[in-house]
Amino acid sequence: MIKVLVAYATRHGSTTDIAEKIGDTLQSNGLQADVLSIADISTLAGYQAIILGSAVYAGQWEKEAVNFLTRNEHSLAEVPTWFFSSGPTGEGDALELVRGWRFPEPLLPIADRIHPRDMMVFHGDIESDRLSFGEKLIIKGVRAKIGDFRDWEEIKKWTTGVAEAILKEVQPHQTT
Known about the structure:
Radius of gyration: 16 Å
C-alpha cells in the first residue's frame, strides 16, 4: 500500500483538524496516511508522498514548519510533495482574501527546488478565547474575521485530487 505522510504545524489546533481531514480523505481513497505533528516526525523514510502544511500568521508559516522544510528539503524533493497553508478567515475565496498569496515569499526558493505538485490555501479558524492578548491586537489590526471559516468540502475535494495524483504517479515498485 502507498504510504503518505501528512505533516503539519499548528498554533491553536485548527491546522491539526485540517491535517486529520486530509488523512481521512487519503485513507478513504485507498492510501495509508500517517498524520503527524512536525514535532513528532523523526524520519521521512518509507513514505512515497508527503503533504506538508502549516498555520499562517502575518503571511508566515509556523517556525517549526520552516525549520522542517529547510532541514528536509532534499528528502521532500525526492518524493511527490504538496503544501497547504491554513489561515485566512472571512467569506469568499481563500486566495482572494490573501490577494493571491500561496506560500511565504522567503521560502519560495526552497519550494522551487522541491517542486511541490500544488500549494493550497485553506480558510482558517480564529477563536478569540484561544488567542493571547498580543494575538488579539494583531487580529484587530489586520481586521481578520473571528470564527471558523474552514470549508471541509473544499479540503476533501482537494485531497481527493491529491490522492488520485499519488495513485497515478507512485509506481507499485515504490511501495513498501
